[in-house]
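REQUEST
  id: r-88c1
  op: predict_structure
  target: ActinB
  payload:
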Amino acid sequence: MFEKFNVPAMYICKNAVLAAYANGRSTAMVVDSGATHTSAVPVHDGYVITQGIVKSPLGGDFITMQCRQFFEEKEIELTPACLVASKDVVRERDPPRWIKRAGPQPTSSWMSYMVRELLQDFQMNCLQVSDSPYDEDVANTLPMKHYEFPTGYNDDFGSVRLMIPEALFDPSNVKGVGASILGVGPLVTTSVGMCDMDIRPSLYGSVVVTGGNSCLQGFSERLNRDLASKTPPSMRLKIISANSSSERRYGAWIGGSILSSLGSFQQMWLSRQEYEESGKLILERCA
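RESPONSE
  id: r-88c1
  status: 200
  body:
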């Protein structure tokens, strides 16, 4: 930043710390479930306890892949809206009747992006995290969710809405996933167990939920249920989740905005002069 962009000053802060700030906490257990992975990161007095970080490789990308595989098995065509000029109203599960948009065709990269957007729209509108470990009989009794694709094809989706996101909380039944991968609840309990005894009550008392997957319906409630049975009786459990999905999705950015608006922020900056005097070692001040 100093050498390439010639910025006069800068500050580096970890995502977990910023997510905690966004929720009004300087000490918290930050559960961040994003695109590439899900992590439990303990934060104490504005600093990450690195030896307590626990991660799982399962995140939003895995959920998207599971949705894509489901549609392929059901032979449901994923055509993004950018290719559809018009469509007819059809009955549920009937083949779609639509007209392709004329003109130059999108590039393959743009098509991939738009198909991914379609899959993520399905995830946010249809998927739901079960409030207890997945049971197909119970899932079949829940109301189905109707969804219409850009081509006009539409269907009701039932138990699959709960089965796909269950992998985040119980990956043991997912094909191709190692037995050593932890669900969201065990990530938190394992991380807390790796921290000092004195700060464990404050971590359980401020479990901050952030990241795109936390926008899934029932995510926070399921985490609360899984942790309630594992939290020691002497400690109080509190799940902190922002009200709006955008606040949960962009928690780190909101925390960065809050941090940079503080009157004391100017004393935290790393100046170009300090960088020229100390080199890269000066970045340790942001650790």
